[in-house]
Every structure is written in structure tokens, then in C-alpha cells.
Design goal:
This protein is mainly beta and 193 residues long. Helix content is 13%, strand content 53%. Strands 1, 2, 3, 4, 5, 6, 8, 9, 10 and 13 form a 10-stranded antiparallel beta sheet that branches. A hairpin with a 2-residue loop joins strand 4 and strand 5.
Length: 193
């Protein structure tokens, strides 16, 4: 068994003024957090607990058994930029997030490799894909050129999220497992949102 490792170093300065009052507008942050070889099931559990979220997909099956995650941020606490990377057996991603008084903005690159092993985790959670067989591994690349999540009266208003994205994939070959449909091949897939 592999043990995960968490390393963190963070400094917040000017958070409290001379009178003892919290002041987020003048506070600065300098933080580096690295999680290495952490069981993906632990991340799935932490995300679920934090967001009261029940995942539709088995993350360890889709991403791989362990995950490396890093977060680096520096600047004013109220408007700091954060660089986030996530690496697992099947997923490589990098994101830049900017915290602003009006909300969060950012961009992200994702590269997901799908083979027969993680296809089973992906397909079993979707009614239309259940019972299908992946005939050839493929790569899915997602570039979120712009993500904006505005703040509402109770925090981030995810219902008003704005996204501009490009999604491309290498050739996808599936046997649907349904006699009337049979095999499907998707070539040169490009989607813009």
C-alpha cells in the first residue's frame, strides 16, 4: 500500500489591524500546498463532504487509484491568483483561478485518457452508455478558456456560471451492446461552447 503525503506552507500577513479587527482587503497570502500519491477515494470523500455532493462517476475508477494535487497562491487574500494542478493515472489538468469581490474567474486545461479499464467506471454510471464496450483507447482534451462564477448573497452563485470551452477528442470507437445500433465511431470530434 502507498501512503499519501501532504505538504503545506502558508503565510497570511496583515489579516488583523492594530485594533484587532479582521481586514481581508489588506491581508496577503503566500501558500503552497502539495498532495502526493493521495488515494483518489479520499479526495472523492472530501469533495462529497465539503459540497454535500454525490458523485455520478466513480472518481478512482475514472482518474486512477491515486492523485497528485498542488495549489500555489500569492497576493491579496481578497483577489489572489491560484494555480492548481491535478495529475492522476488518466487525468492531467492545470487551472488558473482569480478570486475577486465579484466572484471567481479562471481558465483550465484537462487531458483525460480513456481506456477499457476506466471506461467501465465512466460507462456504468450513464444509462445510455451502460453495457457498451470501448474498442480503442482515446484522449479527450478540454480547454476552458473562460470560467466566471459570480458571487450572490450567500456565496458563489454556481447557477449563473458562464463558460467558454473547446473540447476535442481522438477517434472514439464503441460497441454499444445494442443490436439496433451496433458499433459507433466518432472521428475528429470538436465541440465549442
Amino acid at each position: 500500500e502507498n501512503d499519501g503525503l501532504i505538504e503545506a506552507e502558508a503565510t497570511i500577513t496583515n489579516l488583523v489591524d492594530a485594533s484587532g479587527k479582521l481586514n481581508y482587503d489588506t491581508a496577503t497570502v503566500d501558500a503552497d500546498v502539495d498532495l502526493k500519491n493521495v488515494p483518489t477515494i479520499a479526495l472523492q470523500g472530501a469533495i462529497a463532504k465539503f459540497n454535500d455532493w454525490k458523485p455520478a462517476i466513480d472518481l478512482p475508477g475514472m482518474l486512477g487509484p491515486t492523485t497528485d494535487l498542488s495549489l500555489h497562491t500569492k497576493g491579496l487574500l481578497s483577489s489572489a491568483n491560484a494555480q492548481i494542478t491535478l495529475n492522476a493515472k488518466y487525468l492531467k489538468s492545470a487551472a488558473m483561478v482569480v478570486n475577486q469581490k465579484t466572484g471567481l474567474t479562471g481558465e483550465m486545461k484537462l487531458h483525460l485518457h480513456v481506456d477499457q479499464e476506466n471506461w467501465k467506471s465512466i460507462s456504468t454510471s450513464h444509462k445510455t452508455l451502460a453495457g457498451s464496450e470501448l474498442l480503442k483507447p482515446f484522449d479527450l482534451k478540454v480547454m476552458l478558456n473562460r470560467v466566471e462564477i459570480p458571487r450572490g448573497s450567500n456565496g458563489l452563485d454556481t447557477a449563473r456560471t458562464a463558460v467558454a470551452a473547446n473540447i476535442t477528442s481522438s477517434e472514439i470507437q464503441l460497441d454499444t451492446g445494442k443490436p439496433k445500433i451496433g458499433r459507433i465511431t466518432l472521428r475528429n470530434a470538436v465541440v465549442g461552447i
